[in-house]
Amino acid sequence: MAKKKWISCLLIICACIVTAGCWDMRELQDRNFVLAVAIDKADEVKEVETFVQPHGTKRYRVSLQILKFASGGEQKEETNTFIKSNTGESIFEMVRDMLGQSSKSLWFEHIQVIVISDAVLKDVGLSEILDFFKRDAEMRSRIKLYVTSGKAQSIIEFNPPSKEPGGVYLANIIRLHIKNVHVVGSRTDLGYTIQYFDNNSNVLLPRIEMSDKVVKLSGSAVFKKDKFIGYADEYAVAGLKIMLGTEKSAVVTIDSPKTPGHQVVFELFRHDTKLTPHVENGVIYYTDDIIMYGNIGELQGDISLNDTLDPEYLRILEVAFAEEIKRNIYYAEKVFKKDMKVDPVSRFAGKLKIHEPNTWEQVKDQWDEIYPTIPLYVSVNVSIRNIGNHK
Amino acid sequence: MANLEAKTSMSAFQLAIVLFVTCIGAQIMLTPRALIAQAKNGSWISVIIGGVLFYIATYLMLRLGKKYPDETIVEYAPRIFGRMGGIFVIAWFNLVFFLQVVTIFYGVGKIITFYMFDRTPPEVVILALLVLCTYCALQDWGTILRIHQFLFVIAYSILVVVWLTSILNFQPENLLPLWPVDVKGVVAGGLSTWGMYGGYECVLLLLPLVYRKVSLSKLAKEVGLAFIGVTLLFLIIIVVIIGVLTVEDAKNLPFPALIVIRSVELPGTFIERLENYLLVTWIPVVFDTLAAMMFFMAQICMRQWRHADHRPALLLLVPIIYVGSVLIDNPQIYEQTGNLTMWVGLAFSFGVVPMALLLSWWQKGKVGKDCG
Question: Looking at the whole model, is its pTM more than 0.90?
Fold first, then answer.
């Protein structure tokens, strides 16, 4: 019996040697945390950076923003990230070749943002660029995607004045899209973009630009399926968000009805938006019924003339705001439907598929041709609930 | 046998727990993709169809078992089907468990190496889990039952809590249209949910432990409760997957359940990559399913070979299971094995069991007539 116990103990100890610890162990300090990726067209190929390719050309430049772990010692460093870049065609191959520039393995689990230059997207589809990121197990679904008309590398080289790591800063800007109606932010990350591709939907991504050391998100890059077709401005994005009911808050400005040349601002707090498809005798049309509740956020004219305590004046403002919102929606409709001929994020197609599946089955193959001819009827009601702290 | 946990009876509720735990195993991660690809937005209906269908199959098994209260199928199959027929049915019964076990081992090895230990060969993961499950299955039923009960409370509650965090990304619109355009796909999907519900066949082995204590109606009620629980859990999983990912996205992902959890960001917390938490709670769930199934396989062999102890049979099965798992070396073979498993299981539940029931009725009627 004692012998058996000894053998059991020995077996357990042997098992510990084999099973304890971690086969896949990689220490934290032995990793280079990639926070942001920039993808540009390969403008100049620097020999040391790149590698001999058996296939393809030096088509893209991939730049990685990596977190510095060590503090700068006595002298505080200006940045807490650094950039590595490479040129090639396969993003994965470039990333692996970049290990030649790194003393530690590159770790993508904490990647925050991917910035893509539109010069790249004019040549290839977005899905081709994102394939590596959607396939690799290290990537997160909530990686933010931005498109820029300039150089993507410059964006990730940006050092935030707040001293946050650049990737984190860039990713956090989009979180404020809830209050900024000029930015498309809802469902524009990697996970949702892959979903749009799988659903054969069109895609919108936030546009990011940099000039004079200022980085700003505004407007939207518009994609037909995965093909980049241009940019929509801030006003069109605001109209689209209101049209689809994806805004959480908005600021609507009008010229003051009583004091022209001065502005009155409505701050949206709550809305009820219903975009509904209708099919009558084979004719498809959409109605967009919007009810908005909010406050007077700013009034620039003479307050004795713009008497916000007068219920009649408030009714006039409500009608004027409703008209402005309608105008904004029709502007967005013109930009997306008439000019770009694109169903933004295929929301109109999705509504038809959900509510009228039989009609959808009949028109789905010709949807791109039919969509620009389908009318949209908008009705807006605005209710001013509060005038603020002052009349 | 030295083990004091040798169990000669258990309650109907304990049987329900065993059913629940055996049915819900690795398949919550492994099968949703195939079901969603087949039944699309009607997948939730397929899950309900499957629940009803396999409850009926289990009820038939309970009726069959009632005719032979102190015996398992291994003992009464030769009396119903004849000696050779009995051997064939018992081999078939064991094959149902074997195919499930090897596909689960393969799937688990694949998921864990891809999402957790990318540099570990899947064979090592399979081997480690196999050793663990073997150790558990070497115990007597009392120990295994206690593990089932323990994990039923601990692992499943954590699993459900982790899973429900995905509601943060849930879009009800993705579920529409609720009523399927493709009715055929939904019905076929109902049959293919066998992959999810598979494991209920264990009642044919466990009934002698329960029968002397409870009536058939009570048993049917408790088993029905287990099926309601299993169906609800599968419904939550399928509905959330479609609600978060959409049908078209889910069918392009090998393991959509993991991507659903991976998409969750808990605002204001440092907790991230929730798929690791899900996997950590899923491993015990898989472990208890596999351990139970391996125990059942060993029990079938033990009874067939008229041994007093299931352990030699289990140790003999271990290398066969390992080789079977590593032989599935690509997704195509995995899919084919999955289909084979489904048809073997369906044919057993809806072919062999009803036939056994009819034959046993006929034989007993004949005996009654002859006596009279």
Answer: no
